[in-house]
Amino acid sequence: MAKGYSVPRQSLAHLLQAPLDGIDLISTDVFDTLLLRQPRSQRSRLIQAEKLFSGVLRDEGFHISPDHLFRTRQLAERFGYRALNIGGGAGEVRLVDILKRQFAILGLPERFIEKRIAIEVAIEKRSLSANQMLARVLRLHRRTGIRIVAVSDTALPKRQLSELINHFHGPGLIDDIYSSAEVGESKRFGHLFSHVLLTEGIAASRLLHLGDDLLADCTVPRTMGIHTLHLPKGRLRRLATQADGARSQAARGVRNTVIKPARVPHLADREGFGRDVFGPVVAQFCFYIWLYARQAEMKGDAALLFCARGGIGIRAAFEKLVAKLDLPIAIRRENILISRLIAARSALIQQSPTVLDELAREFKKNTFAEVADALGGATYRLSDAWQRPFDPAQFYGLLETTEGGRVLADIAQQNALFERHLAQIAGDAKRIILCDTGLYGSTQRLVAAGLPQRKFETIQFARCNYKGLSEDHFSRVTGLVVEEDLYNPLRIETVILRYWQIIESLFEPAIPSVRHLSESDDGSVHSNAGPIAYGQLDPAQVNPLLTGVFQYIDRVESGARVMSDADRAWRRLKRAITKPDAFDIIALGVGARSVDFGRADNVHVLEKSNAPNLANKLTEIKSQLWREGAIVRDFPLLKSALLPALEMVHIIRQVSARLK
To answer: What per-residue confidence (pLDDT) applies to 262?
Structure first.
């Protein structure tokens, strides 16, 4: 430690009384440290800013509601930071990039960006105050020859930070400013501090940093040998800020309830349902993909791979929306031959325990031989030891036998073909982003365990731990629309958890799951699913719902229209799933679903009941994948009582889970 400064000081008052021997540089955080926030949440500040900006736009002939501005701004920030953090946290989400993405979705020209930033700064000036005591400390030590710099993790660039600091403290307090948005590194991972030390030309032990964030301003710099002083925000101030955010959210919720969106037009067929209901929902989902991908592509080392089968339909909708609204995107995009079976082979080659979890769940009623047939992709003549019920604890041992060696060789050959295919479509990309429908993210969990040399992450429609297995991989799996384990009546999008098969069926083309890979004469890799590259397959063929989705996207004019349409579409979809009528049963019927994982078995979403009496028939409802649909089909006279009762069961289940 530096001579004369052996322990971190506990208060600013002490720094007013003692010299800082051995310290050449003091760095201070900006927000909630040098500039103190009034108890106004970011939500309320953004709402106010977007109201003002909406007026500016209206004067220029652009009619965008404050609500649409606020929601797209929030989404741009949310998915920007999610992509940044999953990608390792290097860099920063810059305000100018957030605004460019917001403007692109809403169809606004970028010439308004400077005006929008000016509004942001003006709102900050109304929401901040000077930390006068800290300013006294800094001026005192600046007069002794110690340099003073501001170091901030923020989306604002240096120029705006300087304007804010000078507004409250006047010029001459700060010698220089380091903004994560401008430097491209953050305090959270220490890289911004490294940049400061290098630029200022001092050793870590000669720097004292002051800030309110325990991790970014204390824990991280201390590990680097930097002296720190934690200046936490008071508890009452934190509570007041949280209360302000809750009030803003509640007020917005009330407004949205009072101003209900227009009703969905009368739906005549499945194509119409796809156009007017799923169309806006899918377009909204595609915006989320685009926002995530735009941030992920910043470093130029990422590839976005759409998983067969569901990802093929997602890719078609995504590319159509990007082209229709001329959304800029540079990230490498390909369709990938993958399935849970393909990914399981990779994990099995590594003898990862994660694959045993999946196999135990998928093959709990099967034998070792049936598991071997599925994984190896052939029918093997195996001894009696393989005819026993599958036990994951014994599986790796069987694979080490002579018989198991044949199975393992086939698995290894298939995995080698998959790795070759991945190299062909992803190239030297270091960051592999898989895009799929959802829910648990088994493919992500397995392929990440099987190919640890690659960095995999997954974005999907929804993320839900319906399997009750480990969630260790969830840190790299993003449910862009839904991240809940249960239906939540307060979040309308979670209604898809009541009937998830409709989302899978919506996006999946009429091709089999990828089970077996082969190599052509030119070295390219193919599969039993046939050609799946973008443009080679029409995922909407014999899929009227997806056909309708494409019709909607062809008519889209702006993201603001999508937002409005999605509000009403979600309400109509919830009604169709939870209180279906005869038309909804037909529109959302998906027939038999393949169980996959190398098996030819199918399961019906609505099984035909053969129960001998009413009691048994009611009991069978629990086994139906779409219970509401089964109730309407099988109990036309009782549905008015049974459907509300089932809704109440789901609500109680959600409340019970929250309490636990």
So the answer is: 67
Q: Are 209 and 27 in contact, with CB atoms under 8 Å apart?
A: yes
Give the strands of the sheet with 431-436, arranged side by side. Answer: 332-336, 302-307, 431-436, 455-463, 477-483
Q: State the Cα–Cα distance between residues 400 and 106, nearest whole angstrom.
A: 59
Backbone angles phi, psi at 574, to 5 degrees: -60, -45
DSSP-based three-state secondary structure for 300 = coil
Note whether 76 and 98 are within 8 A (CB): yes
Are the C-beta atoms of 160 and 184 separated by less than 8 Å? Answer: no
Beta bridge partners of 147: 25
Q: Token pair of 99, please?
A: 């605004």
- Three-state DSSP at 31 gives strand
End-to-end, the C-alpha distance of the chain in Å comes to 47
What lies within 8 Å, CB to CB, of 447 at 6+ separation is 338, 342, 343, 346, 347, 434, 456
Q: Please count the residues of the chain.
A: 660
Buried/exposed code over 374-407 (b: 16+ C-beta within 10 A; e: otherwise): bbbbeeeebeeebeeebebeebeebbeeebbebb
Closest CA to 638 of 621, 626, 653, 650: 621
Considering all CA atoms of the chain, what is the largest pairwise distance in Å, rounded to the nearest integer?
92
* Strands lying side by side in the sheet with 227-230: 176-179, 147-152, 25-28, 207-211, 227-230
Helices 279-296, 559-578: crossing angle, 10 deg rounding? 130
Which amino acid, residue 183? V
What is the C-alpha separation between 216 and 274, in angstroms, rounded?
47
CB neighbours of residue 13 within 10 Å: 10
The Cα–Cα gap between 320 and 24 comes to 57
All residue ranges of the chain with pLDDT < 70 are 1-10, 234-262, 595, 599-600, 602
Residue 430 vs residues 301, 320, 477: alpha-carbon distances, Å: 6, 27, 17
**Whether 141 contacts 26, CB under 8 Å:** yes
pLDDT value of residue 13: 81
- What is residue 4's predicted lDDT score, i.e. its pLDDT? 35
Residue 504: what are its φ and ψ, rounded to 5°? -60, -45
pLDDT at 254: 44
Residues near 427 by beta carbon (within 8 Å), at least 6 away in sequence: 303, 332
Cα distances (Å, whole numbers) of residue 114 to 44, 56, 99, 469: 21, 12, 10, 48
- pLDDT score for 238: 54
